[in-house]
Every structure is written in C-alpha cells, then in structure tokens.
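Hi V.,

Quick status before I head out on leave. The structure for the redesign project is tokenized and pasted below; the design run finished overnight.
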C-alpha cells in the first residue's frame, strides 16, 4: 500500500447535522459503503487515509493482476487487456468498493472494468467521433459553438470509463506541469482574443484531479478575462473520488462565481453517503450542479434505473442536464443502445415524475455537428377537420388544441 504524499486535513465524521436529511435519503438507495471492503483489502489504511483523496489516488488499481486481487475476473474481462496505447485502466479504491466482486454484469463494474469487446472496431467508430480536433484552434481547446469553448485542462482522470468520449487522448500521464502550463497560456490567449466567448467549460480528463493551487491558478486567469461571464467545470470526481471535494476546495471554487459544475453520473449505485456529502458541499457553496449521463446498454438503459438515478440526483440537488447517446468511439458497440431505447426512457420519465428529473436526450453528432436533442413525438398531427392539433400526453390520452 502506498502512502499518500499530501495529507488533507479535511476529514470529519460523516454525520454533520446539516447534511443529515440528504444523507438519509441517499442511504435508502445506496449499497453499503466500503468499510468491509477496506478492512478486507486495505487493513492497514486508517479512516483518515481512506478519506484522503491523495491516498485514494496513490492507491488506484491500474493493472489486471492488481484487479484480480479484488475481483473474480470473467473470461471476457481477463485475457487481452493491453493497457498500453489504448484507454488505461484506473479505478480508485473507493469506487472499486462499489463494484460487485463476483458479478461481471454489475452496472458499475461494466463501466470501468475492460473487456474483450473494447478491442473490436465496429463500422462507424472513430478515435475522434465528434471531430473535436477539427474544431480545435489551439491544442487543448475546442471552439464549436459561437459563444462558448471547451477547455481540456488535463488528460488525467482518477477512474477511466470504458466508453470515454475522449479515449483517444486521456491518460497520458507524466505530462510535465510546464508543458501543460504553456498549453493553458495559449488557450487563455485564444479566449482573451475572442470576446464572443462568454462561457468557458473546463473539462478534460477530469479537472478536479488537479491540485487546488493549479486549479485556482487556471480559474483565476479565466475569471480575469472580461468577456467570460460564466465558468463551468465538467467532472466525475463526486462519483468516483468524492473525498476530493474538501471544504478548502469548495471555498476556493466559490470565489469564482458564477461557476457551474456538471457531474458525470452513471448509475444509482453511485449515490452513496460519500457522493451525497460531496454534492452537498458543492451545492452549499452556491454552485449550481447538473448531471451528464451516458446511456449504456446493460448498465442504465431502462426506465426504473434512470428514474432512480435522476430522482436520487434531485435529492442531492443535482439537476439532470444531458442524457447522451453513447459516442461511437472505437470498441464501444457493446455499450450502445438503439436511439429508440433512449426515447423510450424519456417517454417513461416525462410526466411520470418531476420535470426537473428529466434530462435532455442528445446525440453529439459525429463529424462535429454538436449536441442534437431528440424528443419522443407527442404531436399526432392535425385533426381531420383541420381545426385542432392532436396531442398525446404522458399517460397515452389524446388531446385537442384549437388552431
Ligand atoms: C458540450 C459542449 C459544449 C457545451 O454545450 P452546452 O449545450 O452549452 O452545455 C461546448 N463545447 C463543446 C465542444 C461541447 O462538446
């Protein structure tokens, strides 16, 4: 077991009075937290270490032989994982504690444990399906829409999702700070010289894997650009490394308001007391939280799972923002569902539950078309008499709207 290099002094007992209602809500649906897992696999880790994000990073599981100590790998999971060149393997001990050790079909497990299927290239799949390189005026920045840019601040994540949109570029660790800094400077220069940019979305990789000081440096430079109205961060950290959301981080972030955060959540099993605490802390810092979810076959492609996820997120004050059709990255066919499935899910949610719990279902168009929304059709057309529009509601009833 590796020792963490930094000690985060931000560990506290889990039951703060203010957080209790949300915690209680999460416990109703959350699997047991990692205590047993920790005692079994990291018996020498203290409570303090386990709750220290740098310890979590230092003890990530990054190879199959390591993974085999925790999970009974199936034939599909075991053989040919080639680590090098492809999408790396990385799972935090915390996130691994949510993985079922014996069931290779468990949703969370499928989303982070590599399988043979990802070595299969299917028609239509491409390394850069969204054509981001073509819309990249400087390295590390994508400018596709008129008034906002995507700044890829780092290529590192704490956990690599097997369906990652940017599998072509994530995980190149060991990039020196100096190089990254020079790239950031060029991105900042571009934003400064394009005053139409009023919204900067900082993503990656996962920007919340950066140390506080580096993130603060970047945020303060972006905030200092007069044309930038809002800053957004895209991250999966609250789901996979909730220990990272410390009090010092939350208070640093709130200095850069208006700041929004979009969190990548995949499955209701992620809504643990730890994730609840992380989201509570961010929401209490006044940061509006949205979620982005990728529709994945056998992982979350049914109405009850999605309803449970989205309703759970509302309890955590996270507003479901986008539901993505899975991008055709190489080796992702086993994850993709027909578009019809996504539409069925939206149909199964809209009207049946809180409107806030219904995200916008989008396809990020291959070739750089951007996000295109898809909606079930509630409009049946003109009445035969031509005096009304015929509409259908969530319960299947038909209604007339006079025209
Ligand atoms: C998703 C995305 C954005 C942000 O889109 P919104 O619909 O405003 O959330 C901006 N730039 C790129 C390249 C994107 O992929």
């Amino acid at each position: 077991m590796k020792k963490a290099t930094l000690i985060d002094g931000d560990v506290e007992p889990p039951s703060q009075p203010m957080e209790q209602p949300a915690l209680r809500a999460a416990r109703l649906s959350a699997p047991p937290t990692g205590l047993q897992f920790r005692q079994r696999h990291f018996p020498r880790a203290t409570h303090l270490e386990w709750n220290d994000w740098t310890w979590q990073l230092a003890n990530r599981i990054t190879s199959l032989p390591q993974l085999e100590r925790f999970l009974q790998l199936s034939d599909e999971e075991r053989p040919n994982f080639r680590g090098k060149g492809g999408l790396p393997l990385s799972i935090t001990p915390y996130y691994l504690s949510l993985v079922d050790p014996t069931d290779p079909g468990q949703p969370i497990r499928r989303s982070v444990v590599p399988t043979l299927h990802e070595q299969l290239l299917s028609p239509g799949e491409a390394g850069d399906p969204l054509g981001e390189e073509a819309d990249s005026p400087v390295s590390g920045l994508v400018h596709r829409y008129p008034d906002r840019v995507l700044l890829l601040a780092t290529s590192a994540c704490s956990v690599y999702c097997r369906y990652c949109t940017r599998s072509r570029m994530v995980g190149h660790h060991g990039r020196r700070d100096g190089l990254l800094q020079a790239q950031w400077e060029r991105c900042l220069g571009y934003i400064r010289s394009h005053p139409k940019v009023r919204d900067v979305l900082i993503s990656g990789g996962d920007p919340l894997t950066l140390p506080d000081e580096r993130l603060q440096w970047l945020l303060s430079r972006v905030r200092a650009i007069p044309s930038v109205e809002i800053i957004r961060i895209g991250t999966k950290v609250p789901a996979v490394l909730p220990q990272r959301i410390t009090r010092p981080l939350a208070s640093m972030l709130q200095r850069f308001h208006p700041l929004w955060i979009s969190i990548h959540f995949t499955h209701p099993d992620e809504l643990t007391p730890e994730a609840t605490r992380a989201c509570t802390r961010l929401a209490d810092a006044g940061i509006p939280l949205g979620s982005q979810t990728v529709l994945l076959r056998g992982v979350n492609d049914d109405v009850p799972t999605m309803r449970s996820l989205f309703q759970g997120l509302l309890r955590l004050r996270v507003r479901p923002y986008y539901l993505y059709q899975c991008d055709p990255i190489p080796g992702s066919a086993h994850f993709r569902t027909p578009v019809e499935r996504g539409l069925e899910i939206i149909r199964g949610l809209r009207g049946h539950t809180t409107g806030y719990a219904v995200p916008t279902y989008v396809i990020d168009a291959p070739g750089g078309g951007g996000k295109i929304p898809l909606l079930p059709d509630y409009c049946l057309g003109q009445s035969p008499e031509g005096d009304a529009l015929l509409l259908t509601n969530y319960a299947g009833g038909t209604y007339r709207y006079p025209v």
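Above is the designed sequence. The chain has 14 helices and twelve strands.

G. will cover questions while I'm gone.

Best,
W.
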